[in-house]
Amino acid sequence: MKNLVILGSTGSIGVNTLDIVAAHPDRYRVMALTGGNNIERLEEQIRAFRPRLVAVISSHQAETLRQRLGEIAPEILHGVEGLMACASHGEAHMVVSAIVGAAGLIPTMAAIEAGHDIALANKETLVTAGPLVMARAAARGARLVPVDSEHSAIFQSLEGHRKGDVRRLILTASGGPFRERSLAELAQVTPADALQHPNWSMGRKITIDSATMMNKGLEVIEARWLFDLPAERIDVHVHPQSIVHSMVEYIDGSVIAQMGIPDMRTPIAYALSYPERIALKIPQLDLCRIGRLTFEQPDLRKFSCLKLAYEALREGGTAPAVLNAANEVAVESFLRGEISFLNIGRVIATVLEAPRENQLEHIDDVLRADRWARSRAAKTIEAIV
Ligand code: NAD
Ligand code: MG
C-alpha cells in the first residue's frame, strides 16, 4: 500500500491521478489533498477518498469546506503553511506535485526536505530552481519521477542503459493548435483559439504554453536538470500525432523511444508504480490506423518563446525563473484579453533583457527573481495596453 499526497488534486493532473487511485484501491491510499479554486470538486474528492489532511488557499475556503463536510471533515489547513504540512505529511510515501506554476515550488521543496519520493508534474519547480532542487533531492534521498509525458518517455527510454552512453535527448512537441498558421495569422489569434489543443486535454495555463511552445521550452529546462545534460544535447522535434512521447539517442546511433496514445494517465501511473507497471483501461495504440508518424523542426520565428527558453537556460542563474514568472504574468494577461498572442513572447523578451542580479544559490534568490520578474512584466504590459 502506497500512501499518496496529491498537491493540486482538483486540476487536470490531480483528477487523472485520483482516477488511477480509484481503479487501484488495493495499491494506493490518499493521505492528503490540496486544491486552490474548485471547492466543489475538492469536497467530492474528500467524500470519495477520505484523506486525513487537506489544504486550501484561504481561511474562508477552509471554513466553507468544514461547514459543507460537517462531521466527516478532516483536518483542513490553508495557505502556504497548509500546503507544506500536506507535502511533508509523516505517513506519505509519495507526493504528486501537480499545482500549476511557480506556486508549486515551495510545497514541492517541503516534500523533498521530508525525504518523500515525488511524482513531478509541476515542471516549474525544476525550471525555476533546477540545480537547487536536484541537490536537495540527492541530499535527502528523495526520488524525482517525472509525470510530464516527454520526461516519462525519456525516463523509460533510459531504463537499463548507461547514462554515459547517451548522445542526446529528443523531446517531441505536438506543435499546438497554431503549427500551420503563419506569423501574420498568429497576430490575430484569440484566447479561445489558443485553448483548443489538438491532442491533449490540460489546464488552461499549460494549454496556452503549448500554443506558444513555451511549454516545450520549459520542458527543455526541466530535462536539463532531471537528466543532467546541457542544452546543446537536448533537441526538439515537432511531431503532430503525439504518439512518440520523446526519444533518447545513444552513441552507437540507436534511438529508443516510448510511444502511446496521448493520455496522461499512462505517465502518471508509471510515476506512481515505478519500477513496476499497473494495468490501465485506456484504448490500445493502433499504429496501422494512425498510418503515418511525421517529424519536423520547430519554427523559432513563429514560436519565439521556445527560443527564449533556450537562451534563458544558456544564461543560467535566475534567468529561467525570470522567464517563467514573466510567462505566467503574460499568459494571464493574454487570457484576460489584454495583450495579443504574439505579445506574450515580446513581454518575456523585454523582461529578460532588463539588467538584474543573476545569482542562484538559495531558494530566496528564486523567489526574489520571481517577484522582480512579475512586477517587470506587469509594467511592460501596462506600457503596451
Ligand atoms: P490545472 O490548472 O488543471 O490544476 C492546477 C491545480 O493547482 C489545481 O488543483 C489548482 O487548484 C491548484 N492551484 C493553482 N494555483 C494554486 C496556488 N496558488 N496555490 C495552491 N494551489 C494552486 O493544471 P494542470 O494542467 O493539472 O497542470 C498542473 C501541473 O502539471 C503544471 O505544472 C503543468 O505544467 C503540469 N503538467 C500538466 C499536464 C496536463 O496534462 N495537464 C501535462 C504535463 C505537465
Ligand atoms: Mg509535456
From TrEMBL:
Primary gene name: dxr
EC number: 1.1.1.267
Residues annotated for 1-deoxy-D-xylulose 5-phosphate binding in this entry: K123, S149, E150, S174, H197, S210, N215, K216, E219
UniProt name for this protein: 1-deoxy-D-xylulose 5-phosphate reductoisomerase
Highest taxon of the lineage: Bacteria
Originating species: Geoalkalibacter halelectricus
Pathway where this protein functions: Isoprenoid biosynthesis; isopentenyl diphosphate biosynthesis via DXP pathway; isopentenyl diphosphate from 1-deoxy-D-xylulose 5-phosphate: step 1/6
SUPFAM superfamilies named in the record: 1-deoxy-D-xylulose-5-phosphate reductoisomerase, C-terminal domain, Glyceraldehyde-3-phosphate dehydrogenase-like, C-terminal domain, NAD(P)-binding Rossmann-fold domains
Known role: Catalyzes the NADPH-dependent rearrangement and reduction of 1-deoxy-D-xylulose-5-phosphate (DXP) to 2-C-methyl-D-erythritol 4-phosphate (MEP).
GO terms for MF: 1-deoxy-D-xylulose-5-phosphate reductoisomerase activity
Binding site for NADPH: T10, G11, S12, I13, G36, N38, N122, E124, G203
NADP recorded as keyword: yes
Domain 1-deoxy-D-xylulose 5-phosphate reductoisomerase C-terminal: 144-227
